């Protein structure tokens, strides 16, 4: 057996990351993991230095979303760890593989509330899939391999690994672990046969795609299956990259403000194939789409975590398998199916009408027309990112995603995600176009990561949609407490000047007709750019005005 040299815990840790295929880590440096930082000095792993731990962890989450491999971040103890907590929650609800390494006080200081000490199992235990504190450098290979396996297996999610400061400087002679591997559960032959039979019998079926554990090959295979089977296909909330929106069998997404025709059809479907997702609150329209626990229709539920099947909805056919393995098995059995043109035709026609914006008179920029322009101007490989807010409904409704791996957005509804996600995506593929969308409130939650984009010369495009308010909350406020406005108004800076101050390109846009030229100038600059888009506060949603929402609420009282 080959002798193993004595190495510090920090060196052993970074060697394991290389073995597990990590090419980029995102971090805010801290004295609690200096030994690991020092080991990165001699490593081929690229280090992205971020401006806040929440941004670093969201960058890692975006990498996990688009690659299917755990994104990796390092944050320091105490406040660094708590700053990163939003991203752990995002990764949990979004089923994103992520491994966060966090510094810890020295082992001899624990249980004294030492400087920045936290009990990480208590802090992250309800959010992460697994939390571990490594006591012995000799166990680093074992526990890091397990962390990557847990993060990427079953229903993927975040793992938090705490690193006591003195453990990282202690030396040990230990062999490296093997690269982690995710076990794929294959569906049984009888399950696939039952699915094929159920699809053949259905008159009004609907496939709903969601979750993770997909790849481009699985998406392409399912598009072919849908064409053969005459199967209408919808996607769940912020999973639009799972099916080509230009495919004739695509009928829309089940997100916020969905097409009423699609909702009506889903409620009347005689068979629902729920593939990869959980059909949670947003996608299920507050759990009204299907009955609980009896869905009220035939339900086939395919999910990589067997504990998820039957957790909310009782499935007639439950299959514990990843979308990749299920689609591969189904593709081998599916033949030309029922002609459902009479069913799909009206749904597709309704989808195309629903996703075609109409000019809307307003004092500011019409975001519907902006999305029409971007739909034509952006190459199909462009990655679009966003956080949370009413502004995102224009993106989700009017942009047509056509390729896998082009959407990074939090299904958890977390604000502040779009900018760091764009930086993370651009960092692993600097030549790929990336456009981030953010509301004025959303942007300033992690807008400082624009500095990271400038530092690494990442030409991301950030579109800041400014209506001088927390728009989503104002909408609910006007619906429930009309005219009683409190806590939702914002006084904003000049975001174009903000971009220039960091060394990027910035422009302010107040008219719809000026957007295209400004966009092209920003793209031609080759710099990270912010387009500060001024929208009319009255244009609060795609369908309703602020005053209209208020008047309707007052009339109902």
Tell the overall outline: globular
Q: What composes the largest sheet?
A: 6 strands, parallel
Radius of gyration: 24 Å
Strand order of the largest sheet: 3-2-4-5-7-6
Low-pLDDT runs: none
Work out the strand percent. 15-25%
Estimated helix fraction: 25-40%
- By secondary-structure content and strand pairing, the structural class works out as alpha/beta
- How many E-type strands? 20
The N- to C-terminal Cα distance equals: 80 Å
Q: Count of helical segments?
A: 22
Q: What does the average pLDDT come to?
A: 94
Topology:
Elements: E1 6-8, H1 9-19, E2 24-27, H2 34-41, E3 46-49, H3 53-67, E4 71-75, H4 79-83, H5 85-94, E5 98-104, H6 120-124, E6 130-133, H7 140-152, E7 158-164, H8 165-169, E8 171-173, H9 189-201, E9 205-209, H10 216-229, E10 233-236, E11 250-254, H11 260-268, E12 271-275, E13 298-303, E14 317-320, H12 323-333, H13 341-354, H14 367-377, E15 383-386, H15 391-398, E16 407-408, H16 418-428, E17 434-439, H17 440-446, H18 450-455, E18 461-466, H19 471-480, H20 495-502, E19 505-509, H21 515-525, E20 529-534, H22 546-555
Parallel strand pairs: 2-3, 2-4, 4-5, 5-7, 6-7, 9-10, 9-12, 10-11, 12-13, 13-14, 15-16, 15-17, 17-18, 18-20, 19-20
Antiparallel strand pairs: 1-8
Helix pairs in contact: 1-2, 1-7, 3-5, 3-16, 9-12, 10-12, 14-15, 19-22
